[in-house]
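Table S2 (text version). Query chain:
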Amino acid sequence: MVPFKRIFILIILNIAVATTVILTAGIGNDADKDELLNYSGELSVWQSRNCIACHSIFGLGGHLGPDLTNTYGEKGAAYIDFVLTNGLQNMPKFKLSQTEKKQLILYLEHVNELGKYPLDNFSDNPFGDYYGGQ
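Corresponding structure-token output:
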């Protein structure tokens, strides 16, 4: 019964993270970002190109390609632009407009700012000692 509770709570946490990413997408402080991006703009490129079929954000999505949560912070905008333009290993090159590329790069920058994935210090018992270590 305890493994079911753990799975159920992890599913709820995943839904909460996905909801946070979707609801906060497109929020920016710079006028350029606000002009270039809006909620429907960046999300529509991610969805219309079906990026989630292969890639995941915070572990949610496809697993054929890498999780892109912190790609912007680790590799930078130039790397992302290069991969979107030329493809890489199993990822095909897409014919994206400059605006679409900028939207995806800004989206990945925003996702990177939301937090780190995977967590470095996820304990053996993520629900605390309340469950008695089960």
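Notes on Table S2: The helical segments are 2-24, 31-36, 39-48, 71-75, 77-86, 98-114. The first strand starts at residue 56 and ends at 57.
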